[in-house]
Design brief:
single chain, 245 residues, alpha/beta, 9 helices, globular, binds NADP nicotinamide-adenine-dinucleotide phosphate
Length: 245
């Protein structure tokens, strides 16, 4: 498979890219740090990626970087079957309430610009006759929750967009997969106290790769979060207000 990846230099993205490399996929990495990208590319070649892993500059906060990056990927791979987006930004509710600039950047990165990137990726995939768009959202988008109001709102919007995209374009061959991780131990959550059911990037990557192969439109990872969120989704507002979750 020919895979374009935004966010493979760390965390769950790196774990998923390594699994793809191990099975011999062709990979092209997009990101904002040239040195990190090159290091990751060489690492994926060692893990078995098919051919040279190419890289291009793409910053989720700079919409104008999207088109040249996707075009470079398309040229190098001579097509694309899968586009994965794991890039995203996290900050605590307290930090986001206190810092206007950080709040602006997080809402831009996690909703508006991820959607803008997906819209461009969608064109390339549909032009090639279809493919898979796999994007990481979050369980934080499933319900308005006190500790993650702003981050959760961005991810809620993203999850709805991705669901709609799948409804509209699946018949034309574009499979859209929304990944909803619970708490996973990565650089994003470093320093936070892991809650029960905290996952590891490798475990999440295995679940997500299976979903990509099967075209499963919605993935909770670790899978237990599907059942946790099922309960949370139906809790009355009065209960949500009282609990700290
Ligand atoms: N970890 C969790 O508990 C958790 C839970 C729910 C959802 N998620 C979501 O899952 C996804 C992956 O999370 P993770 O924990 O694996 O994160 P991570 O370890 O922090 O990795 C994030 C990746 O995104 C890239 N990135 C960040 N900002 C970028 C930008 N402006 N332009 C381009 N690339 C950028 C990072 O590259 P740089 O090195 O350049 O920053 C890195 O490769 C995110 O969307 C996150 O919101 C995570």
């Amino acid at each position: 498979m020919k895979v374009v990846f935004l966010g493979a230099t760390k965390g769950m993205g790196r774990a998923l890219a390594r699994l793809m490399a191990q099975r011999g996929d062709r990979l092209f990495l997009l990101g904002r740090d040239h040195e990190d990208l090159e290091k990751s590319a060489r690492d994926l070649e060692v893990h078995g990626a098919d051919g040279e892993v190419g890289t291009a500059f793409c910053d989720l906060l700079e919409v104008q970087s999207f088109a040249p990056a996707l075009e470079k990927a398309q040229q190098k791979l001579e097509g694309m079957d899968i586009v994965v987006v794991t890039a995203g930004l996290f900050a605590s509710q307290e930090q986001l309430e206190a810092d206007d600039d950080l709040r602006h950047r997080l809402l831009l990165a996690d909703f508006t610009n991820t959607v803008q990137f997906c819209e461009q990726a969608r064109h390339w995939l549909l032009a090639a006759g279809g493919g898979t768009l796999c994007v990481f959202s979050s369980v934080a988008g499933e319900r308005g929750r006190k500790p993650v109001i702003l981050y959760g709102a961005a991810k809620a919007g993203l999850s709805h967009y991705l669901e709609g995209l799948d409804h509209k374009f699946r018949e034309q061959g574009l499979k859209t997969i929304v990944v909803k991780p619970g708490f996973v131990k990565t650089s994003m959550t470093a320093g936070l106290k892991p809650p029960p059911f905290a996952g590891e990037p490798d475990g999440v990557a295995r679940v997500v790769l299976k979903a990509i192969d099967n075209g499963t439109p919605e993935v909770f990872a670790p899978p237990i979060w599907r059942w946790v969120m099922l309960v949370i989704r139906y809790l009355p507002r009065a209960v949500m207000r009282r609990i700290g979750f």
